[in-house]
Amino acid sequence: SRVAGRMSNPAVVTRFAPSPTGYLHIGGARTALFCFLYARHFGGQFRLRIEDTDAERHNEDAVNAICQGMEWLGVKHDGDIVRQSLNKARHQEVAQGLIKEKKAYKCYCSKERLEALRAEADKNKVPFRYPGTCRDLPDDHVDPDGCTEPVVRIKAPDDGTTSWDDEVQGTITVPNKDIDDLIVLRGDGSPTYLLAVVVDDHDMGITNVIRGSDHISNTPRQIVIYQACGWSMPKFGHIPLIHGPDGQKLSKRHGAIGCEQYESMGYLPEAMRNYLSRLSWAHGNDEIFSTEQAIEWFGLDGCSKSPSCFDFDKLKDLNAHYIKECDAERLFTLVAKLSPDVLPFKDKFTMAIEMLKPRAKTLLEYREAADFICAKRPLALEEKAAKGVTGGGKDVLVGIIELLNGYSGEWTEAALEPLIVKFAEEKSLKLGQVAQPMRAALTGSTASPGIYEVMWVVGKEDVLGRLQDAVEGKNTVKAAPKKEPKEDPKAPKKDGADGKPKKGNAPPANPDQPEYTKLEIKVGLLTKTWPHPESEKLWCEEIDVGEEAVRTVASGLRAFYTAEQFTAGRKVCVVTNLKPAKMAGFESCGMVLCAANADHTKVELLEVPEGAKVGERVMIDGVEGEPLPPNQVAKKSVLKNVLPDLKTDGSGL
Q1: What's the confidence (pLDDT) of residue 518?
Q2: How many Cβ atoms are within 10 Å of 585's Cβ, its own excluded?
Q3: What is the arithmetic mean of pLDDT over 184-204?
Q4: How do 581-583 and 586-588 pair as beta strands?
Q5: Staple 593 to which of 142, 287, 462, 573, CB 3.0 to 4.6 Å?
Q6: How far apart are CA 335 and CA 339, in angstroms?
Q7: In the prediction, which pLDDT does 424 show?
């Protein structure tokens, strides 16, 4: 029969009940977050219970790790922490009460007898179910084999079904023939997990049990205990598990590590909350939202039944968004916690914040992007950068030193740019021929924020010192990191000895599909544009293409579109599955599509289809087939694959 739930609209109380055997892994963190959001949504309470009845496996360090992980994640529980081990007397009291009411009984069957019964069941290829040997023994029974520490078993129903309306999975029905007389109290008097959980949930007033779908098999057994005790049961919601990219249950190799490790890897708690919220739960098409919005929107009716896939790339993109949203004071505090060596440079970090944010998806990358701020003289140069300060590059640096020694104007980006541009023009040099050796000498790298920004943040005195170090050959050279051999992208990856391709691989190219259908073209919205600091041809832009984070793209349109024409709010067509490429030191993750005449003297942006929404895929008439996944198409191959199939208009575009 269907088991009745609690009375309508009780005060909501949820709980997170981990076992203290390890850290707070991602699956547990997601469960805790869902319980927290659900309780806060209904103005209820979220409790924390440590299920520490297994003394042999108990680890107090794990308790601390769980609490620290929840604190970092921002999932605050209400009231004191409940220790299940302290409720042992209460668990025993309930079990003895069930015996008195003839709803449970003492079982004297030896371990050897039970093993023999299991072996017989295996031999007959049927599931083992305790046959109820001791079910009807009298109260004064004395075991002839001398057993003085019998276990206590509950009397499960023999026929019918046990069913409940799961708030995520829907109605679940289990035949009672599959539920045996389960043990609720061991011979030593300690409670089993099933009894302890039911008693504690009842005594704590838990109204909603939200947990992983791997607990579904426990639920009908716990319902049997609720029925025997005469208690109304909570509502159950079993959320799907989290899988790795290969479709297997999430493990350490996928990212099932402790929350504190994500903190040390440079992730922000608000990014993790946002990301975990989206694993098997959704609110329409919303991808980026605050915790306050998640609380407002959250409900189990928004949960899917299917497992979600943990994707580090998506987490990183979301983290990049929250780094950009973070204020200077907090951002520096977070970076300093991971890298205390930055503490003496707080003022320079504050100056550089807007140039560092776009270059980092984690706090570690943010710190790495700021190496030029903290570097000690003489700088250690990357191998490629070291080549830039020799020969003609060295001559450039000598000229820049002379220029700056005679310069007494303002030391700002705006003032330094025309100074360096004029120097390049007078020397008949391209701007890149000046900027690259300067970048190498000032940062030790071939990639950095704009050279004028770097000069401004480093300061005149240190700029001159670093340039002089390079001219005098004082710099050391860092060995290039060892490159791993590249795998053939067309070769299917193996998943061990079975030789089967891993799930989640990019699909192989379809030889019958025209080349240009391999492109993913989406509608994008310009959210920010600015001129490339070192190239007169390029615009830099941030584009919303309906993903978790905006994309950064560089486009060679400066000669054809003014700042007023190429500005935030304009819709464009964007190729989104290109391999990222550096354009004058700026990483471009996509390409804005344009049309041009034969001699490239006339260029116009492709018009977005009327009524198309941001993130929608743009189709080419008469062409079928799906595009390749991201990072599958090299930018240089786009034109030759598209051009033969495009038509021109009357003006030659």
Answers
A1: 67
A2: 21
A3: 95
A4: antiparallel
A5: 573
A6: 6
A7: 94
On the question of pLDDT at 414 being above 60, the answer is yes
- Where would I find the H helices in 428-510? 431-443, 451-458, 460-471
Which residues have C-beta within 8 Å of that of residue 366, sequence separation ≥ 6? 266, 323, 331, 335, 356, 357, 359, 360
Query: What are the residue numbers of the active site?
Result: 252
Is the omega angle on the peptide bond into residue 344 within 30 degrees of 0, that is, cis?
no
User: Which residues neighbour 12 within 8 Å (Cβ) at sequence distance 6 or greater?
Assistant: 38, 39, 42, 43, 44, 45, 207, 208
Instruction: Compute the 3-state secondary structure of the chain and give helix, strand, coil in percent, each to the nearest 5.
Output: 40, 15, 45
Q: What is the pLDDT of residue 508?
A: 43
What does the alpha-carbon distance between residue 172 and residue 161 come to, in Å, rounded to a whole number? Answer: 10
Q: What is the mean pLDDT of the chain?
A: 85
φ, ψ of residue 575 to 5 degrees: the values are: -80, 120
Q: How far apart are CA 114 and CA 15, in angstroms?
A: 35
512-523 per-position pLDDT tens digit: 444 445 678 888
Going by C-beta distance under 8 Å and a sequence separation of 6 or more, which residues neighbour residue 270? 74, 290, 291, 322
Bridge partners for 555 per DSSP: 539
For 215-252, the pLDDT digits (tens) are: 999 999 999 999 999 999 999 999 999 988 777 777 66
Note if the pTM is more than 0.85. no
- Structure-token pair, residue 433: 């021929």
The DSSP call for residue 445 is S
Nearest C-alpha neighbor of 32 from the set 67, 64, 63: 67
Round to whole Å and give the CA distance between 538 and 552. Answer: 13
Q: Is the pLDDT of residue 58 over 90?
A: no
Sign of the alpha-carbon torsion through 636, 637, 642, 644: positive
- Residues 526 and 567 sit within 8 Å (Cβ to Cβ): yes
Report the alpha-carbon angle 400-583-486, nearest 5: 120
Asked whether the beta carbons of 437 and 406 are under 8 A apart, the reply is no
Which of 197, 187, 192 is CA-nearest to residue 222?
A: 197
Three state DSSP letters for 110-157: CHHHHHHHHHHHHHCCCCCCCCCCCCCCCCCCCCCCCCCCCEEEECCC
Closest CA to 70 of 352, 258, 287: 258
Rg (CA), the chain: 33
